[in-house]
Amino acid sequence: MTFLKEPPHKHGTVGRSAIVLVNLGTPDAPTRSAVRRYLKEFLSDPRVVEIPRAVWWFILNLIILPFRSGQSAKKYASIWTREGSPLKVHTAAQAQQLRGALGERGHHNFTVAMAMRYGSPSLPEVLSKLKADGVERIAVLPAYPQYSGTTTGSIYDAVFDHYGTVRNIPELRFVRNYHDHEAYIRALRLSVQAHWDAHGRPDKLVLSFHGVPKRTLMLGDPYHCECLKTARLLAAALKLTPDQYIVTFQSRFGKAEWLQPYTAPTIAQLARAGVKRVDVLCPGFISDCLETLEEISMEVRHDFEQAGGREFHYIPCLNESPAWIAAMAEIAEQHMIGWPTQMPAAQHEEAKADAEIGRAAALKLGAAD
Ligand SMILES: C=CC1=C(C)c2cc3[nH]c(cc4nc(cc5[nH]c(cc1n2)c(C)c5CCC(=O)O)C(CCC(=O)O)=C4C)c(C)c3C=C
Ligand SMILES: [Fe+2]
Ligand SMILES: [Fe+2]
To answer: I want to staple 69 with a disulfide (CB 3.0 to 4.6 A). Which of 36, 151, 222, 365 is the partner?
Structure first.
C-alpha cells in the first residue's frame, strides 16, 4: 500500500478548519459526450443502482448510455445558463455566501469549499487542495436535507475512499441530515409565504421530492420518513390542513416501482378532478437543477395544463435566499463546536510558539524544514 505524498509540513502555521458543501454533480457541458461521461460515473455508483454489477454493466453501457445521453443533453441545454449548469452555479454561490455569513458570526480561521460527488470539482480534488492549504479539520455538509444511502451515503463513501489513500488524515465531521432543522423549515416557510404574498394562494400545494426505488425503503433507507417529516413540519409552519397539500415523488428512473405517489400523474389527476391552481415546491433540492427547472417547471407544467389545469406555479428552491444562507451557517456552526475558528490572538501566539519547538525538534531528527 502506498499513500499519497503529503505536502511539506509547514512549521509556524495554525491549522485551519473547513466546511465542504457537497452536491450531486452535473455535466460539464450540455452536450451528448459530457452528459454521457457524467451519467457513466453517476450510474456506475453501486449506492445509486443496486443491481448485480455484471448485469448492470451491460444494461448501462449497451442501453442506458447510448439512448439517454442525447435525450438528457437536450434537456440540459434547455436550462443551461451563461455561467453554466444551474446546480453548480447555485452551489458555488451558496458556498461563497456561507463563508460571508460565518464571518459575520465571528468565524474567520476557516475555509468554505464546494465539491461534487460526480463530475467536477471532485471530492478527491477538493480534499487534496484543502490539505495543501493546511486544513486540519473538515465538516462535510451534503446538499441533501433528507438522508438517503443513494445520496448522503455515497458522499460518505467518496470521503472515506479518499482518506483511505492518505497518511495524515484531518479530523472529520459529517452532517447527516437537516430535514427537521428549525432554520431549514423556516427558510422553506418564508419562501412559500413570499410567493403567496406576491401571487395569492393555490387550491393545492404539491411538495415534490426526488424519488428512490421503493425497495430501498423496505431495506431500511430512512429517506421516505424524512421527506414526510419535512412535509409535516412545513405544513404545520404554514398552518395548512391535510387537504391543502400533498406529498409526491418525482424523477422515477427505470421500470421498478419507486416511492409513490408519482408527481407527474398525480398533478395531471388533480387537474382532471377540477383543481384549477397548483403550486409546486421541491423541498428536497436546495438548488434549482435539471429535476426542478426542466422536469417540474416545464414537463409537469405542460402535463397539468394539458389535463385542464389553469394555473401552475413553480416555487423556486432555496438557492441563495438569505434565510437559507443563515440556516446553513447555523447548521455548519453546530458541527464546528469546539473548533478554534474564532481563535483569539493569544492562542495564535501560543500555537506559533509550539510550532517553533516542533520545528526545532524535527530539524534535529533530520527532517527537511
Ligand atoms: C438511477 C437512480 C437514481 C437515484 C436512486 C437517484 C436519487 C436521487 N437523486 C437526487 C438528486 C438529483 N438527481 C439529479 C439527476 C438525476 N438523477 C438520476 C437518477 C437517480 N437519482 C439521473 C439519471 C439524473 C440525471 C438526469 C437524467 O438523465 O435524468 C439531479 C440534477 C442534476 C443536475 O445536473 O441538474 C439532482 C439534484 C436525490 C436527492 C436522490 C435521492 C434522494
Ligand atoms: Fe437523481
Ligand atoms: Fe416512512
So the answer is: 36
Enter the pTM of the model.
Answer: 0.94
The verdict on the CB of residue 72 being under 6 Å from ligand 1 is yes
For the chain, give every domain's residue range.
Answer: 16-178+322-340, 182-315
Q: Measuring CA to CA, which residue among 336, 337, 339, 359 is closest to residue 13?
A: 359
229 close to 179: Cβ distance less than 8 angstroms: yes
**Residue 90 assigned to a binding site:** no
| Spatial CA neighbour of 319 closest among 165, 140, 188, 126 | 188
* Span 272-314, pLDDT tens digits: 999 999 999 999 999 999 999 999 999 999 999 999 999 999 9
Rounded distance between C-alpha atoms, residue 350 and residue 352, angstroms: 5
Question: Rounded to the nearest whole angstrom, what is the distance from the C-alpha of residue 249 to the centroid of ligand 1?
Answer: 12
Question: Which amino acid type is present at position 126?
Answer: V
CB atoms within 5 A of ion ligand 3 belong to 224-225
Cβ proximity of 284 and 227 under 8 Å: yes
Q: 150: Cβ below 6 Å to ligand 1?
A: yes
Q: Looking at the domain 182-315, which fold is it?
A: Rossmann fold (3.40.50)
- Decide whether any atom of ligand 1 lies within 6 Å of the 35 Cβ: no
Residue 11 C-alpha cell reads as 512549521
DSSP string for 32-90 = HHHHHHHHHHHHT-TTT--S-HHHHHHIIIIIIHHHHHHHHHHHHHHH-BTTB-HHHHH
6 is in an annotated binding site: no
| Domain 16-178+322-340 class in CATH | alpha beta
